[in-house]
Design a protein that fits this description.
Blueprint lengths: L7 H23 L3 H11 L8 H4 L1 E5 L17 E5 L15 H31 L5 H72 L14
Antiparallel strand pairs: 1-2
Helix pairs in contact: 1-4
Length: 221
């Protein structure tokens, strides 16, 4: 049996494609330095370059804030050290909390995910419109076959309906003939029953004993 497309696999492959696009967008946004570099270049850099990006991506930590389990500060230890991350400094109100730069980069990453997936989906839709799944010639042939199948089905239905009507007419005629025969038989039966009733009544009347006046005895008191 021929089919027009791959059936249920089309939806499955479509879901896999969308999932792959979204996952790639998150991978690019959160596992690479592309977004932080672009944010620094177009938001924080005075000359729209990456000069000074390394210093901008580091945060300051005061070594005097070491915890006891980390060990005590030695004489040769520096007063401050730098680590990678967007955190507040030791002199800020919220020490070592997330800085505004972190939220800027976070929002830029989410925006990149949304923009990236929309661009990919739009390009995919344009390509699907330009390159159809079924060629025009094949689509025309399929439509022609469907039309021929409908015509054959219609003709088969007409023939079947004609045969059915003919059988119904024969059945009705047979029922009418049977009913007419039963009606004739019933009328003759009614006539015969009436005649038999009349004969029975005549026989009963004739068989009754006649009472003569001569046999009557009158008693006078």
């Amino acid at each position: 049996e021929r089919v027009e497309d791959i059936g249920a696999w089309y939806g499955i492959l479509k879901i896999i494609t969308y999932t792959a696009v979204v996952s790639n967008a998150f991978v690019i946004a959160y596992t690479s330095d592309f977004i932080p570099r672009m944010v620094y270049k177009y938001v924080y850099s005075p000359h729209f370059t990456l000069h000074g990006y390394i210093e901008h991506s580091l945060s300051v930590f005061n070594t005097s804030d070491y915890k006891e389990e980390w060990g005590t500060k030695g004489e040769n230890d520096p007063d401050t050290c730098l680590y990678r991350g967007y955190r507040n400094g030791p002199t800020d109100n919220e020490q070592y909390g997330l800085s505004p730069h972190y939220w800027h980069v976070f929002a830029a990453r989410l925006a990149f995910v949304v923009i990236f997936e929309h661009i990919v989906f739009v390009l995919t839709g344009i390509m699907q419109f330009i390159i159809p799944d079924i060629p025009v010639e094949v689509k025309t042939q399929i439509q022609r076959e469907q039309m021929l199948a409908k015509e054959a089905k219609y003709q088969h239905g007409l023939k079947k309906s004609r045969d059915t009507d003919y059988e119904e007419i024969l059945h009705v005629l047979r029922e009418q003939s049977n009913n007419s025969r039963q009606g004739v038989r019933g009328s003759w039966a009614r006539r015969l029953s009436r005649m038999s009733d009349g004969l029975d009544a005549h026989v009963e009347i004739s068989n009754r004993p006649r009472q003569s006046l001569e046999s009557t005895v009158w008693e006078v008191t």
